[in-house]
């Protein structure tokens, strides 16, 4: 079972892979039965096929670049929470504007070191035009 430091390293590696734009490498980090809710309250994505489609959209369509904060472990032996700023393409702006989204993500890491669950907490009040 991954210890607290190993679970945090998995989460940080996830963001590195997203930022590198490698859909296959990101999906390989998830268990075959993993579930993703982004944002929490939207339909859950599950299974390898749905995860591939979801991450192709996140990486290719939205051009997501994440700046993660410091991860915090939980005492359940499986969970990690992390704040981050996601910068994405604005899907409503034909001129190609970008948006910043303040997010809190929670991850549950399995005994095999794979991500079993990811939940992204953000609402419309957490979205603003990208700085810069």
Protein described:
The structure is a single chain. This protein is α+β, with helices and mostly antiparallel strands and about 130 residues long. The protein is about 30% helix and about 35% strand. It contains three helices and eight strands; from the N terminus they run ααββαββββββ. Strands 1, 2, 3, 4, 5, 6, 7 and 8 form an eight-stranded mixed sheet that branches. About 20% of the residues are buried. The model has no long low-confidence stretch (mean pLDDT about 95).
Which terms would index this structure?
single chain; 132 residues; alpha+beta
* Biggest sheet statistics: 8 strands, mixed
Strand content: 35-45%
Shape: globular
Q: Level of helix content?
A: 25-40%
Mean pLDDT: 96
> Can you tell me the residue ranges where pLDDT is under 50 for at least 5 consecutive residues?
none
**Cα-to-Cα separation, first versus last residue:** 42 Å
Rounded radius of gyration (Å): 14 Å
Order of helical and strand elements: HHEEHEEEEEE
Q: What structural class do you assign from the helix and strand content? A: alpha+beta
Total count of helical runs of at least 4 residues: 3
Number of β-strand runs: 8
Task: Explain briefly what this protein structure is.
The protein is an alpha+beta fold and 132 residues long. The protein has helices spanning 4-20, 23-27, 47-61, and strands spanning 30-37, 45-46, 65-68, 72-73, 79-89, 98-109, 115-121, 127-129.
């Amino acid at each position: 079972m991954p210890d607290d430091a190993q679970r945090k390293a998995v989460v940080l590696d996830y963001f590195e892979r997203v930022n590198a734009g490698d859909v296959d490498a990101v999906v390989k980090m998830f268990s075959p039965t993993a579930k993703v809710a982004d944002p929490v309250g939207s339909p859950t994505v599950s299974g390898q096929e749905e995860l591939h489609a979801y991450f192709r959209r996140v990486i290719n369509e939205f051009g997501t670049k994440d700046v993660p904060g410091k991860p915090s472990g939980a005492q359940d032996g499986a969970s990690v929470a992390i704040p981050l700023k996601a910068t994405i393409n604005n899907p409503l702006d034909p001129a190609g504007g970008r948006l910043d989204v303040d997010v809190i993500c929670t991850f549950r890491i399995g005994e095999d070191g794979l991500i079993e669950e990811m939940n992204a907490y953000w609402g419309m009040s957490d979205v603003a035009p990208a700085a810069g």
